Amino acid sequence: MPSVRQCFDGSEGKHILSINPTYEDNNIIGVEGFVIDISDISNVQEQMYYSVRNSEAGYYKIGKNGYFKDVNEAWLKIYKYDNKDEVIGKHYSISREKNDLQLLKDKFDKILKGESVNNQLVNRKCKDGSIGKHILSINPVYEGIEIIGMEGFILDVTDLDIDIEKNA
Fold first, then answer.
1. Residue 99 near residue 93 (C-beta atoms within 8 A)
2. Cβ atoms 82, 73 nearer than 8 A
3. Which of 40, 120, 122, 130 is the most buried (most CB within 10 A)?
4. What residue numbers bound the domain in which 47 lies?
5. Do 123 and 138 share a domain, yes or no?
């Protein structure tokens, strides 16, 4: 949802914002997020699509039935897929090990009821079978007032020295 914000120079800007807590030793120590300037754009969805497509963050969109509808190039790179044809139309379970599927289903069901997940550290299975460490966001996608799926961002932190507990 776009927000109208007052800029430093006193002008008004239209922005898409996210804000998430940052943690250290399970304590909230601050907040972080994204600001995408859409002041010159009349179609917010068009701007989001452009911003996501050209981001280093992996983007995904999954339909209500659990099947991938879209991913960007960064998502493909993070999960080690060669092209969208390997992902689009596949069930979201391709990114999880079998022992984690129930946790994922529970989280998916909560998202379809309107919950969001921001800044969660997770382990995910890549195409080659390796396990990546990722920071994940999941948000419901609405058409009018009906939730029709979910979408979110993935940041790869595999190379960082972070211990990740089992999360959905």
1. no
2. no
3. 122
4. 1-54
5. yes
Q: For residue range 113-167, list pLDDT tens digits in order.
A: 888 777 677 888 889 999 888 888 888 888 888 999 998 888 888 877 655 544 4
CA distance linking residue 130 with residue 79, whole number of Å: 9
Secondary structure (3-state) at 163: coil
Alpha-carbon distance of 58 to 37, in angstroms, equals 19
Across 127-145, b (16+ Cβ under 10 Å) vs e yields: eeeeebbbbbbbbbbeeee
pTM: 0.66
For the domain that residue 82 is a member of, what is the CATH number?
A: 3.30.450.20
74 shares a domain with 11: no
CA dist 41 → 7, 45, 54 (Å) = 17, 9, 16
